[in-house]
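Re: the request from the purification team.
They wanted to know what the chain is likely to look like in 3D before they choose a buffer screen. I agreed to run a prediction and write the result into the notebook, where they can find it.
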Amino acid sequence: MAMLTTCSHGKLIPIGTTCDCNKRTVARIKREPNDVDKLRNTHRWKRIVQPRIIERDGCVCQRCLIKYGIITTSKLSAHHIKPASKYIELFFDESNLVCLCMTCNRQLGTREQLDFDYEIPNEYEYKL
């Protein structure tokens, strides 16, 4: 029987080999940036739209708040309700964005709808 060890992802693998998780990570890093990646790296997204959505939603993860009654204020980002990979024309559309924590953002992934009842605030004030 081969000697086993655990990879950094917690899977059992034979000693001297790498896990499939690592191969996928390396492949993702090496791939060419697509249109969505390019938009995510723009000044408009990083410095204007994403911070505006986080502030609009009170700097709180809306899924944690509405679905679980928990206030989460760390590792927040703007999540696309309709996935940017399929609806690139909605990338900067604020009605397609909601503030989520990293955990909720990953759990929702690229679903085309939210698993909680969220309404975009009608009026919100920006600090200039």
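For the purification team: Residues 101 and 107 are 10 Å apart (CA to CA).
Please add any questions underneath this entry.
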